[in-house]
Amino acid sequence: MTLSSRRGLRAIAALSVAVCLTAACSNDNSSSGDGSTAAGGGTYNIWDPYPQFDDSSDWVKLLAKCGTDAGVTVKRTGYDTTDLTNKALLAAQQGNSPDVLIVDNPVVSTLAEGGVLTTTDDTKVDTSAVEPNLLAAGQQDGKTYGIPIGANTLALYYNKKVLDAAKVDPATVKDWTSLTAALEKVKAAGKKGITFSAIGTEEGSFQFLPWFWGSGAQLTQLDSPQAVSALALWTDWLKKGYAPNSVLNNTQTTSWQEFATGDYAFSENGTWQLANAKKAGFEYGIIPIPSQAGGTAPAPTGGEFVTAPVQTDTKRYATTAKLVACLSSADNALTTDTTLSYVAATSAVQDKQVAANPDLKVWVEAVKAAKGRTSDNLGTKYPKISEPLWGAFQAALSGGKSPADALKAAQTTAASATK
Amino acid sequence: MTVASDLITRAAAAPAAPARAPRRRSPQWAAWLFLAPVVIYLIAFYAYPLYRNLDLSLRHYTVRSFVQGGAPFSGLDNYRTVVDNATFWPALLHTVLFTGISLIFQFAIGMALAVFFAQNFKLSATLRALFLVPWLLPLIVSASTWSWMLNSDSGVVNFALKSVGIDPVNWLTSPSWALTSVIIANVWIGIPFNLVVLYSGLQAIPSEVYEAAALDGATGWQRFWRVTFPLLRPVSAITLLLGLVYTLKVFDIIWIMTKGGPTDSSTTFATWSYKLSFGNLLPQFGPGAAVGNLLIIMALIFGLLYIRLQRRQSL
Fold first, then answer.
1. Which residue does chain A place closest to B256, by CA atoms?
2. Burial, B21: exposed, middle or buried (Cβ in 10 Å; 0-12, 13-18, 19+)?
3. What domain range includes position B173?
4. Which one of A171, B55, B68, B173 has the lowest number of neighbouring Cβ atoms within 10 Å?
5. Total tally of structural domains belonging to chain B
6. Interchain proximity A199–B285, CB inside 8 Å
7. CB of B285 less than 8 A from some CB of A
């Protein structure tokens, strides 16, 4: 081998080492059937964010049954929820979107913006029974891009033993003042106050919003006096030791693990922890998150939408609509929402859920008061507001900035990003 | 036709074919054929993704144009956006600090341990094997363990500090400590690599050199600086270069431990690029790719520097 060619190979080697640096450079070719078979019969692809369910679960059985009823075979793939947005975008780019896509509600507006989703007018899906506050998360400019399969939201779990020891009656926690007073008593009794998740991701914003909205603040004005009061509430809890410093790094799961130690009086967490609460080994209760002035604060809605991505073969929509209708029909929604530990999206099914399990009453009320993050026609502006927002509470909680300064900086960023 | 006669005709025909072929094809052709697999591999897995990433960073992508195509060419706009972003200078500083400090400590500790273990005392093999543990663990395991240990309220590190009377530190949640914490974890993970490579480099130094040095009356310290260190220079250079490339792109440790926070205080280019492209509900592929390309350029500069140094050495 000559010297120059060896040098050339070395240059290639150096280059190739450098290439591996970027994760973003790979163009992931997601595999799914191209689904070019004609309507009536054939295979229909469904993607969902519930990889925890395998073929023996009620959920997958329901998908198969809906397929059989519509006269087609259903091929189901479960993805991790954080993966699903990118997978769906790449699939749409390559023209092999699934027929039915079940996706987290704040993502719907992003996908709709990308022209990935059909409207319910195109597919003739009936959304009239769905609670308007839940449906709003999937609506933009008067068009509806899917139907919620169910909803979850946030409330406060409390540990009865800790509250009893501190002589706090949870029924008296009606507003921020009484909540902070309760936390003070708990700390005085030698226990820990409240855990939540203030991590620097969408999850943190999700947890901050009930306090943000509960102060009367609007996402369009992050530095309003109301917003500052909401952030000051969190910051003061940390300063006074009512909430642990670890909230800055807590996901909702790790925050729950802290609560499950039995040392904490309150935990801000979601419907999905109900099953774990029963296993926690102490008596618990649930109260709605109070707003500043009293009453239930609007918490953000969680939960997925059933959507129908755009297909080149529009004849497929008729069968897709049947599948969507089947998944969101009252009986099936009840099964699904029970499996997922969600609250149903229609009041008829909500009543059935409460009749079967009175514990759910608090949650149904919380869901009724809840609000979609992308509602108020914010749509794809929401992610651009949410990111500065989580930056703001991270800065304030870590002591880097005062709540007012942090939110002022966030508003400047959000305003220039959403212009 | 019987099977036997079929075999005979085939056997007769077989030698004829290869006899004709090589005469017509030039040796150049054969060379290209041999090269084809590696060329195709390089194009498909290195050149094309690199081109796509460059293309992604030079166009203005929205969600819509990402899906539908037709993103307008925007020149260096994405790079301008990235440089003007308030995160740019802190992220650059963190990347340099993270890489530099990690490399210095990994290399120094790895070298010290390699020299120490080269003396082949009893149990040295066992101890050396123990030092490899960080390397064998999946990164998600070690990073999660570090983040539990450094937890402000229930972490074992703060517990230990408290028991000797030092105030607990908010390792992962304070803007002034977060970067230090991820560097500590990264140094711990990087030591075994340096240890192994430098140790095998030490094995290659002939013992006669040391004997000669000992006869000349060199002390242990002089033996290290005058014999070991100069003879290890080529091995050290490649260790540092590989370490640099590995450290520049470190993403998982930082993401698992701090997510680059609180408020960007431990954000490096690698986590920032991920955050832009995938960390938000609304992906920003263009700026994300731009940051990724800046990282590639940084690694490339050092790679070329290494080749230059090596060429000078071999001349």
1. A249
2. exposed
3. 85-279
4. A171
5. 1
6. no
7. yes
